[in-house]
Amino acid sequence: MHGNGNDFMIFQDRIPLILSKKQISQMSNRKTGIGFDQLIIVSTSESSMSDFNIHFRNSDGSFANMCMNGLRCVAKFIWDKKLASRDNILKLETKKMILKAKSLSNNNVQLIFRAPKFIHVNEDTKKFLKKLKIIDPYFVNVGNKHIITKVNSLEDVDLRELYKEISEYKALRGFNLSIIKDKARNIHVRTWEHGAGETLSCGSASACIGFIYAKPSKKVTILSKGGKIVTELKDEMYLSGPAKTSYEGKWQTS
Question: DSSP string covering 204-222, please?
């Protein structure tokens, strides 16, 4: 499945939680495996607070706390498999929070969740980033952590190399990195995701960008190479975008 080209392999089971990093890396390989940005495990919740528990593994096998493109796909997966009624709002429990998912028209899904929060970083970290020409970035937490910085041109940035330099700084390990440019009232973005690399879209980055640009009664449109996500901040954060099924199959471990 995919949300704006950010693609996932989704299991209705807890068994993939015990897969090794090597096994997941083999699965995620786009030349010799299935190919995906993240593996997602869906299991029925034993809590009265949620309907399903959701766990994420990155393409390199590491664990992730959040993936909002993935959660939209999870919601569609649950509805398509008739594990819950499409008329119901789902409560999906991740490691960091419980989010609600609502079915919209044309394969779109809306997520509803508590607003992201800004992260305080010290002056030494800001000075380090300034040496990399990252000036006045935003640091935001939406269940996973993001650095978001404005640039003059998205195409001229070597995102791989920039992320590599950032990730070598201890205080910034585990962050995702997004570069953004405001064009014609839309926010254009490229994101390098920790444990997955550059993806065609990042839902949690879009949530953070929508939070940064939020104004009363105004929706924010975020555009990536994969497509469009729309956010709005009210009493909670609202994020809407597509969720599509690519194919179904079975994987035989060797």
Answer: HHHHHHHHHT-BTTB-EEE
